[in-house]
Design brief:
Keywords: Cell outer membrane, Lipoprotein, Membrane, Palmitate, Transmembrane, Transmembrane beta strand. The protein is of the alpha+beta class and 468 residues long. It contains 9 helices and 4 strands; from the N terminus they run αααββααααββαα.
Length: 468
């Protein structure tokens, strides 16, 4: 058997070897249940599960649906994340190219004059020479120890991480759109109620001023009435400012300048709160983008250990050249002008001052760090879900309480109006009760708005909703 045949056979046999540890997902013990009222089932990470869902449709608002759709097309953070994902895909293709030989072609020609190395006392022998060549070259470094394959494994995991990060950006942007939109609608309601409160406070102040002029009301009563009006004016300015800023935020989220974007006010808005089921399936947390991204990052780091360990083993280069070389282009491609070479080259680093050992230790330490970050991400995700479940539970109880307060104040206001018609109470008493009713309605609607926004936060913490 020839040397080249032996080397080729050896490369094929060893091509199945891969140094470095095979990936195992970092161990992470998980609780069996959620503390705040939902059951939990253990879940494995799944990059495909990071795909976003249309969870915002549960809020039954065409304007919100349109804003989310526009943000998905024009938001600059999403566009940047999509570009990063394409870059990661290109890196996978680049890594795979290392498995294949490199083939090149060349065509060259030259004409030159030079001495032939002989001299006499009177002349120097010179001549003009032509040289033409056409060559086909190929080189291949067999992946004997899996360095290239571990590199592919790492880049594939990195691409999956980038995919999860893209899904995370999409989820974050759509959640931000929903949260800002619901907050804007809450401000719409606040502005309406505060305008009504301001109008009532103006009427009450006018009454107190008239009574003060007549000597019926005291100066203290006048000061209190003035403070109540001024407070309602200040609260109205705060709500109007907040609405404008939420509108500005929505403009940026959909990729527009704030001066070119507006959302028409709605005073009759009704908040919808999608309620999570009593049992949350395991597929929810497994598709949470940050958990998926952290786990895929650990997989990529694990593969890099194998890349570093492969440097301890010799490399084999197989090269071949076939071509023609002659003195003229005519007749170049003839048997006498044919040239060829074929041969392997085996190389091994004997001493590098510990650079390879340091590279392996760096790769191992990097993996340990990223694995710890993955566990921390899972714990943070669990905390995030628990926090949002807790917020939903308490806000729901608070909303129920404010609903009862509002209903009682409706009854009281109706009673005061009846007494006004009967002439047993004053107009001032009825206006004061109406003011209390408006404040009770504001407390209720603000809590309903916070509950609706809290449901968005819960959906985001679960990776994008709980539907199958």
């Amino acid at each position: 058997m020839k040397l080249t045949d032996s080397v080729l056979l050896l490369s094929l046999v060893l091509g199945g070897c891969m140094v470095g540890p095979d990936y195992q997902k970092p161990a992470m013990p998980l609780p069996q249940t959620f503390k705040e009222g939902a059951q939990w089932q253990r879940a494995a990470s799944n990059p495909q599960g990071a795909l976003d869902s249309q969870w915002w449709l549960a809020y039954q608002d065409p304007v919100l649906n349109d804003l989310v759709a526009r943000s998905a097309q024009a938001n600059q953070s999403i566009i940047a994340a999509e570009a990063a994902y394409r870059l990661a895909q290109a890196q996978v293709a680049s890594s795979r190219a290392g498995l294949w030989p490199t083939v090149g072609v060349g065509l060259s020609g030259s004409r030159g004059e030079g001495g032939d190395g002989t001299t006499s006392s009177s002349t120097t022998s010179t001549g003009v020479k032509n040289s033409v060549s056409a060559t086909l070259t190929a080189s291949w470094e067999p992946d004997l120890w899996g360095e290239v394959r571990r590199g592919i494994e790492s880049s594939q995991a990195a691409a999956q991480q980038s995919d999860a990060l893209l899904a995370g950006v999409r989820l974050s942007i759509s959640s931000s759109v929903a949260s800002n939109y619901l907050a804007l609608r809450q401000m719409d309601i606040d502005v309406r109620l505060l305008q009504q409160q301001q109008a009532i406070n103006q009427q009450l102040l006018a009454m107190i001023q008239a009574q003060f002029t007549q000597g019926v009301a005291t100066n203290d009563q006048l000061l209190v009435a003035q403070d109540q009006l001024t407070t309602s004016i200040a609260d109205l300015q705060t709500s109007q400012r907040d609405r404008e800023q939420y509108e500005h935020a929505l403009a940026v989220l959909v990729g527009m300048a704030p001066s070119e974007f507006s959302v028409a006010p709605r005073n009759d808005f009704s908040f919808v709160v999608p309620r999570p089921p009593l049992t949350l399936p395991s597929t929810l947390l497994q598709r949470r983008p940050d958990v998926v991204a952290a786990e895929r990052s650990a997989a990529a780091a694990n593969a890099k250990i194998g890349v570093a360990e492969a440097a301890f083993f010799p490399t084999l280069d197989l090269t071949a050249q076939l071509g023609y070389r002659g003195s003229a282009l005519g007749g170049l491609f003839s048997l006498p002008n044919r040239i060829w070479t074929l041969g392997p080259a085996l190389a091994e680093t004997i001493f590098d001052g510990g650079a390879r050992e340091a590279a392996v230790k760096q790769a191992e330490a990097s993996y340990d760090q990223i694995a710890a970050n993955y566990r921390g991400t899972v714990l943070s995700a669990l905390q995030n879900v628990e926090d949002n479940l807790s917020a939903i539970n308490h806000l729901q109880t608070q909303a129920d309480a404010f609903q009862q307060v509002y209903q009682r104040n409706q009854q009281l206001f109706g009673s005061q109006e009846a007494q006004l018609r009967a002439g047993t109470v004053s107009r001032e008493t009825v206006l004061t009760q109406q003011l209390v009713l408006l404040q009770a309605e504001q407390n209720l609607r603000d809590t309903q708005g916070q509950l609706s926004q809290g449901s968005v936060a819960l959906i985001q913490s679960l990776g994008g909703g709980w539907q199958p």
